[in-house]
Prior knowledge:
Layout: H1 2-30, H2 36-49, E1 55-62, E2 65-72, E3 75-82, E4 89-97, E5 103-109, E6 112-119, E7 125-131, E8 134-141
Antiparallel strand pairs: 1-2, 2-3, 3-6, 4-5, 4-7, 7-8
Amino acid sequence: MSSGRGRDRIRRRLTFGTAGLAAALLLALAGPGAGTAHAAGQAKATALAGPCAGHKVRTIPFSTGRIEVFKTRGFVCAVTIAKRGGARKAMSVSVQARGSRPARDQGRYTRRAGPVVVHAGNRCVRVTGKVSGRGASSGWILC
């Protein structure tokens, strides 16, 4: 009875060993640069798309940065981007749909606060952003 179990163990080890060897062989044949062109293309597409889904509808500049506002299918998204990256600084961004509470992101960031997304439907929104104590507010927009 114990000889049957021993054979099963040997069979399993051989199966896993063969699978591991096949995987190592495929990785060796593919080489270290395989897939980097695709990954680079994805990174470039993400960088072009921006931090929010949808299309950019407003850019609100101020002395230490800017607020970028995006809209898609009734959702509004905003980010605050510092004019100069580097050291961490106090940053914030908020989006408020009329009749609702604002959604906020605030903290100490090097380059960007947000993204913050709210469902606005067909309502107006107010967007505010700050970098190092200076900022801007949009008033009610996208009505």
